[in-house]
Amino acid sequence: MTDRVYPSSKKATNGTAPTTTASNTAFPATKAQLYGASRPLYRSQDNRHHYRRSCCCSCCLWTTVAILLLILLAAIAGSILYVLYRPHRPTFTVSSLKVSTLNITSASKLVTNINLNVTAKNPNKKLVYIYDPITISLFTNDDIDIGDGSLGSFVHGTKNTTLLKATITSSNQELDETSAGKLKTDLKSKNGLPLKIKLDTKVKAKMGALKTPKLRIRVICEGIKATVPKGKSATTASTSNAKCKVDLRLKIWKWSF
Asked: Which pLDDT score, from 0 to 100, does residue 87 have?
């Protein structure tokens, strides 16, 4: 039995043998592919945020280091100045207090005329104090304002004692009923009227060519007992037990310490 030969269904063209090629069928793009092509490429922001955080941390670190260095240098400079100059606070004492007038009128108005002498001492050998004008307030132990006065500015030299004289007055100062009643009772007391003095000012220290910034100080003197004059002659208050305390006043925004 002989094999049958079937002719090819494709005819040769121009005498060349037919060739077979793989067909690539093109399909339409899906929605996911179209969306992915039109969407912009996402770039991570982690590196940028990390760079900003590192810059902030570095700035905070160097600022803290600079502040600590300034504090350290200030402490070293202060220690050197203390060793060289040995600064001491000035001292104040009430030398005398004479009451010429201290009356309460029928309309609860206070009339005061008091002469005050205060002695200021500078115990330092190399330190000069420069005072601004001083405001003086006179109070009872119940914080009733008796009168006010002032002292001019002055320079307090080394190892110097200065006598400060002031007049404390109050002309027709109105008092409330409670204050007027307490003050009338205290004025009639045989033990005298307890008083305290407040002196407020600013002072700066001079050490050779160096000057410190101005600082607020308050001097409070307590232990004074005054008596009301009966005639025209003034009475002298008892100041033997008077003691004065010098406090540094630091003001931060609205608060004073």
From this structure: 82
Hey, how many other C-beta atoms are within 10 angstroms of the C-beta on 113?
18
Cα gap 13→10, rounded to integer Å: 9
What SS3 class is residue 124? coil
> Over 60: is that where the pLDDT of 18 sits?
no
For the chain, the 3-state helix, strand and coil shares in percent, each to the nearest 5, are 25, 40, 35
* Euclidean distance between CA atoms 228 and 235, whole angstroms: 7
Rounded-to-integer distance, Cα 150 and Cα 197, Å: 12
Alpha carbon distances (Å) from 156 to 163, 185, 217: 11, 41, 15
Residue burial 155-173, b: 16+ Cβ < 10 Å; e: rest: ebeeeeebebebebbbeeb
Q: 162-203, pLDDT tens digit by residue? A: 999 999 999 888 898 898 889 988 888 888 899 999 999 999
DSSP assignment string, 143-205: --EEEEEEE--EEE-TTEEEEEEEEEEEEEEE--HHHHHHHHHHHT-TT-EEEEEEEEEEEEE
193 forms bridges with which residues in the sheet?
Answer: 226
pLDDT top residue among 210 and 194: 194
The larger pLDDT score, comparing residue 253 to residue 235, is at 235
**Per the structure block, which two tokens stand in for 234?**
């003034």
**Contact yes or no for 173/145 (Cβ under 8 A):** yes
Q: Where does the pLDDT of residue 131 fall: very low under 50, low under 70, confident under 90, or very high at 90 and above?
A: very high
